[in-house]
Amino acid sequence: MNLFKLLRYERGLTIGEVASGAGVSRPTISALEAAEQPKPSAPVARALADFYGISVAELLGVSRLDSSDVAA
Question: How far apart are the first and last CA of the chain?
């Protein structure tokens, strides 16, 4: 299950509720969940992150590097 679908499931929301709440089309949400569209555009990412109350980085599954991940 991808992160877009997981976020929606964790909150018990329908695709329509996410689309309406974030101001994004239902087909866009469906495509993101089906991984047909691998990454959202910047405006869609911001709208979804704001809707879910998380950062865009979290929405995209980007984690902060710790010092062991950085080459010296």
Answer: 35
The pLDDT of 47-54, averaged and rounded, is: 97
**Whole-angstrom distance, CA of residue 19 vs CA of residue 31:** 12
Task: Please name each of the domains of the chain with its CATH number.
Answer: 3-61 (1.10.260.40)
Q: What is the DSSP string of 30-62?
A: HHHHTTSSSS--HHHHHHHHHHHTS-HHHHTT-
Lowest mean pLDDT among 16-20, 50-54, 66-70: 66-70
Burial 22-47 (b: 16+ CB within 10 A, else e): bebeeebbeebbeeebeebeeebbeb
